[in-house]
Amino acid sequence: MEEKFSSKGYLNMELLRFTTAGSVDDGKSTLIGRLLYDSKSIFEDQLEAVKRASIRRGNERVDLALLTDGLRAEREQGITIDVAYRYFATPKRKFIIADTPGHVQYTRNMVTGASTANAAIILIDARNGVTEQTCRHSYIASLLEIKHLIICINKMDLVEFSQDVYEKIKDEFILFSQKLNARNIHFVPISALLGDNVVEPSAIMYWYKGGTLMHILETIDIVSDYNMEDPRFPVQYVIRPQSADHPDYRGYAGRVDGGVFRKGDEIIVMPQQQRTVIESIDSFHQTLDQACPPMSVTIRVKDDIDISRGDMFVREGNLPSITQDITAMVCWMSERPLQLNGKYALKHTTKDVRCVIRDVLYKVNVNNLQQNHNDKNVTLNEIACVSLRTTKPLLTDPYKRNRKTGSLILIDEGTNNTVGVGMVMNS
After folding, report:
1. CATH superfamily of 3-225
2. What is the Rg, in whole angstroms, of the alpha carbon atoms belonging to the chain?
3. Is pLDDT at 392 greater than 60 in this prediction?
C-alpha cells in the first residue's frame, strides 16, 4: 500500500485494491479491458497487439478481454485461469485490479486475489441473474471482510437495456445479501462490451440515476476501513546498522496493522508484557510524529528490552488475545485433503509456529451458506471452520475486527506449499 503525507503528517490514501469475480463468461476480463481502455491506461503498442489478435480471431471489434487474459492458455481457452493483476490510475486515485477466475475449481485463486482487496466487483450476466457462482463469490468476499461490494449487472445490451430486468436482479441480490456481512453495496447496470456506465454514463440507460463504475471506484471511502482503534505493530525486523554514523541505533521495523502510534506513547511489548515509551518513529524519508495503518515504519523505544521478530507493540487496556487454541474459517488450497490431527507450519503476522488441526467443526456450502457438521473431509477449494492448537501462543484479534492480526496461513512442512488460509473467529 502506498501512502503520501501532507504538511501536517496525516496519511493521504491514494491506492484502491479491488477484485473482480463472477460466473464464467460474465465479462470480467472485458470489463477490466474497458476500464483500462476508456481511462486511457494502456500503451499504443498494447492496443495494436490486441487489435491484431482480435483480427486473427475474426472478431468484428477489438476484444478488450485480451488486455487482461495474459496467459497463453487463457487466450486459447477463452477463460481466466489465474489471478491477473493490472495497474492503472486516474487523476483521483491509483488502482490495483485482481482479475480472478470464475470457475468453481479456481476458488482458491479468487481467495488469493480478494485477500488484500478494499472492494469487490461482482459481475452478473443480465440474461442469467443471480447464479450459484454469484452467491459463492459474494460469500467469499463477505468472509474476507471486503467492505465494499459493487454489483455490476453486465450485458445490459443483450436485454435491450431493460430497467425491469435490472431491478429484478437487484432485488434478488438484496434478498441474498441479507445472509452476508456486507456493509456497503452498490449496484450499477453496465455493458462492458459497449462501455455503457463503465467510465462514461450511458445515454440509453437514462433511467439509472447513480454513478458510473469508475465514479464509484474513485469515490469509495476506504480510509475508514482500517482499524484505527486497536494499536497493533508486529515487529518484522530488528535494525542495528552499527555504523560510524549510527553506532547506537536500534530500531524495530514493521507495518502498522491497527491503531495510531505516536512519539511519546507508552506501549507494551507482547508477549513479554514489558512497558516502554516510543522514542521516535522513522520512515525512509523522515522522522514522523505518528504512524497509522498501513504504514511501514521503524519504531525506536527508550528502554533496552529484548525485542525480536514476532513480538508486537500494543497499548495498555487494548491487548490482543494470547492463545494457543484458535477457531478459524479455512479455505483449503491443496489437492491433498486436510489431515485431522495433521501437523502444519503456521504463519501469523510476523510469527512462525507449528500447529495441529484438532477438529473440523463444520463445512460451509458456499452456494446456500448451509453448515454441514458431519462431514470432516475438507478438500481443494472447500471452506470449513476448524480448531487449531499451536506450539506457541499467538497474539490475535477476530478477523472481522482486524484483517491483519486475524489472518493466518497454513503450510505443508514437507513441500513448503501453502495449503490453507484462515480467518480467526475467536479471540
Report:
1. P-loop containing nucleotide triphosphate hydrolases (3.40.50.300)
2. 23
3. yes
